[in-house]
Structures are given as C-alpha cells and as structure tokens.
Amino acid sequence: MDTALARQFGIGVGPGVKARGKHIQLAPGLNIIRTPLGGRNWEYYSEDPYLVGQMVVPEVKGIQSVGVAACLKHFALNNQEQDRGTIDVYVDERTLREIYLPGSKQE
C-alpha cells in the first residue's frame, strides 16, 4: 500500500483539471472491484474495502492540495456495466456495511 504515491497521483491530476478551466475533479471512485467485468474497475483501487479507504484519502488530499475540489463517486454497488441504467441492486444491510461502505470511511 503506497499512500504517498496515491497522494502524488492526486497532486498530478490537479493541474490538468485547472488547465481545462475546471474547479472540480470527478474522482476518485470508492467502489470495490467485485467482478473482472466491471467497466469502471480501472478507477477503483481494490476489492478490499479497507485498502480502498486507505488509498482514496491521500488521493483526495493530493487533489485538494493544488486548489481543486475532489468529488467522490460510485460509493457502492456500481459493479456492472451491462444494463447499468436499468438494474436495481438489492443487498442485505450486513453486506452493505461490511463490504461496500468501509471504503468511504477515513481512518
């Protein structure tokens, strides 16, 4: 786990956002990787909710350190691309709290 690299990544993203005349970066994504077919897996850190939480925080701090806001997105249950505009996801409370939501907590 290289949190310093995650922060550097955030610092590197900021100037590109500013160069486009924007003030907010629509990232990072906090969802966990649950299937190799997930179309947004490239923007998520891991299948481990603890690791996601540990890596997202320094990225956000890096983005914000250069005067750009970070907009966290895809908190939970965004695991598939096929029919994603029409699918309705049902998950029990325990699964939601133990697997999907811990990534959004700052330690």
The backbone outline, from C-alpha atoms, is globular
Order of helices and strands: HEHEH
Please give the number of β-strands.
Answer: 2
| Helix content, binned percent | 25-40%
* Low-pLDDT segments, ≥5 res: none
Could you please describe the fold and organization of this structure?
Helices cover 39% and strands 4% of the residues. It has 107 residues and is mainly alpha-helical. It has a two-stranded parallel sheet with strand order 1-2. α1 packs across α2. The protein is globular. The mean pLDDT is 87.
Q: Summed up, what is this model?
A:
The chain has three helices and two strands. It has 107 residues and is mainly alpha-helical. Helix 1 (3-19) packs across helix 2.
